[in-house]
User: Fold Glycosyltransferase family 4 protein from Rhodocista pekingensis.
Amino acid sequence: MRIAQVAPLMERVPPRLYGGTERIVSYLTEALVDQGHAVTLFASGDSRTAASLVACSGEALRLDPAVIDIVPHMALMLERVRQRADEFDVLHFHIDCVQMPLLRELGSRAVTTLHGRLDLPDLQPFYREFSDVPLVSISMAQRAPMPPVNWIATVYHGLPDPGPPGAGDGGYLAFLGRISPEKRPDRAIEIARRSGMPLVMAAKVDKVDKDYFETVVEPLLDGDRIRFIGEVDEDQRLDFLGRARALLFPIDWPEPFGLVMIEAMSQGTPTIAFRKGSVPEVIDDGVSGFIVDDVDGAVDAVGRLPGMDRAAVRRRFDQRFTAARMAGDYLDIYGRLRLGQVSPRRVA
Assistant:
């Protein structure tokens, strides 16, 4: 099958450091190539892939100091996609909004996976207008805030073979991802302190969250029991998670998926997660981690970690969250598109 994958331009594919959507686009693209499909990736020019790469910017836009406005770059990418659209059996978009008018021209050959939060008020009138466009969600919880739209499937994320699981011998709790108010790193610190365990925080601080980090999080760091080590790359992520006793995921927002939870699972590391968004869909309570409702419950869950079977955590990953399974799910969707079993339809 001839497949186009259209990625965001803010980060390369795969990202050097933080970038969940770009990481999933990479995993999916490489899995499809491995399965013998002719895949073309529209992405930043510094991307790394076994697919045919169409460079739509010189490098990831986040890294280019000359970039002030990303919209012209995204418009140019969509024009490149439009010019080559007849070369593909299926076009798969991962860029959320800006392609929607083009999708009406492409008809039933195009599908969009929405990767972000959908509870923002600006999105309501937008998706009411484009309620005919075929959409894929990354969890059922992600769909909750949306008006009626043309959902055709939910596909959970998957990871390529992560190698052998970690031993959890680092003696610390882990916080991994992004420092922001909705991720609640302050809760992670409180949980660690109350449970008497060290916490290591490997996370990105965006410009918009710099003040939050400096005023709320940084004063709580002590460089010993509570440490912040900054962003880590993909290889470092898995080692970091594999050595942790548990991942803390004390979120306070409607998480669309939470890639870090399955990254921890791939290393046999259980996750202690708050019951928000996709968490109940991803974590099997008592098997791959613990789902809790508050800090007290999280502290109690830390005390139950010695009874967790890390091999069972990894088995649940192998059963549910591999890249091969993810690619298979998407191939089912692509096949339905080619057979005309999925078509744009207006949703009242």
